[in-house]
Amino acid sequence: MKSLVSLAAVLAAGLVLSTVAYAQDKPKLAFVVNAASDFWKLAEAGVKKAQGELPNYELEFKYPAQGTAALQNALMDDLVAAGTDAIMISSADPKNSIDAFNRIAAQVPLFTTDSDAPASNRIAYLGSSNTEAGIQAGEEMVKAMAGKEGKCMGFVGFLGADNAVERINGFKQAIEGKGIELLDVRGDDVDFTKARTNVDDVLVANPEVNCMVGFYSYNSPKIYEALQAAGKLGQITVVAFDEDPVTLGAVKEGSFVSTIVQQPFEWGYQGMLLMAKYLEGDKSGIPENKLIIVPTKVINKENVDAFEADLKAKISGG
């Protein structure tokens, strides 16, 4: 009897060990964002959907402690040391992260999203064309100003990030020759308090400003807060970016003209599937130019309700 019990114990222990070993042997894929913003909840939901289709992989969604390149790069180092097999990242400061990116890319396949680092050895970029998104925002502003002279101020997180530079340049391209001028763009380094202060300061120091653009997801809610506090909602024409609930509410009530939305859910979902296929040797999803563009959309008063319903379904997993 003792021998039977011992044999059962050995078999059970072996089963547990083999199960643990199997779990540890699963390839790990990581999605690293540039800051702890609600914007990324949709990408996280996309990663969650991908996990359901990739049972043989372990997917991770990582927020840095702060939105700095140094902390992002340290987080990637930690992921590689922990055995992560491929990484997709939205870089906080791509121009100053090339060496760090190349160090990571020499160890595991590295992909970018949202904010590209084309000078690095990343495999490919999957995300929006930020230039096209900026052009859409500019076209929306031209339409809203309807021939009136515009003195606009822009607000953004990282002034040097490719996604910011490209959106700003696209916006300028669309408003050129249309009687609208982008006077300046104020950066805040993803400091939400500074983001609000930047708008407050403009309202006091620049009374000529009659239009504003929030180039990052949290900038437009801060514009809304500042305009509301100053009693100027509806007096300044605002075009937004992304789908923060405050922004969508402002579009719905007519305080904002529209918002240009990306598809971060698809970044998370498609990004994980792309990396899994790449690890399996299937590189057919990588185009020659290494750019996989997920189109942006204009959300206005006419389609905001349908868009909100779709968002809720994605976040809830429906």
Care to give the gist of this entry?
This protein has 318 residues and is of the alpha/beta class.
Q: Major β-sheet, in short?
A: 6 strands, parallel
What portion of the residues fall into strands of 2 or more residues?
A: 15-25%
Task: Quote the CATH topology of the largest domain.
Answer: Rossmann fold
Binned, the helix content reads: 40-55%
CA distance, first residue to last residue? 53 Å
Order of strands across the biggest sheet? 2-1-3-4-5-11
CATH architecture of the largest domain: 3-Layer(aba) Sandwich
Task: Please explain how this structure is put together.
With 318 residues, the protein is an alpha/beta fold. Helices cover 48% and strands 17% of the residues. The protein has two domains: 149 residues, Response regulator (Rossmann fold, 3-Layer(aba) Sandwich); 132 residues, Response regulator (Rossmann fold, 3-Layer(aba) Sandwich), CATH 3.40.50. It has a six-stranded parallel beta sheet with strand order 2-1-3-4-5-11, sandwiched between helices. A six-stranded mixed beta sheet has the order 7-6-8-9-10-12, with helices on both faces. α2 packs parallel to α10, α2 crosses α11 and α5 packs parallel to α6. The longest helix is centred in the N-terminal third of the chain and has 24 residues.
Secondary-structure blueprint:
Blueprint: H1 2-25, E1 28-32, H2 41-53, E2 58-62, H3 69-81, E3 86-89, H4 98-105, E4 110-113, E5 125-127, H5 130-145, E6 150-156, H6 162-175, E7 180-187, H7 192-205, E8 211-214, H8 219-230, E9 237-241, H9 245-253, E10 258-261, H10 264-279, E11 291-293, E12 297-299, H11 304-316
Parallel strand pairs: 1-2, 1-3, 3-4, 4-5, 5-11, 6-7, 6-8, 8-9, 9-10
Antiparallel strand pairs: 10-12
Helix pairs in contact: 2-10, 2-11, 5-6, 7-8
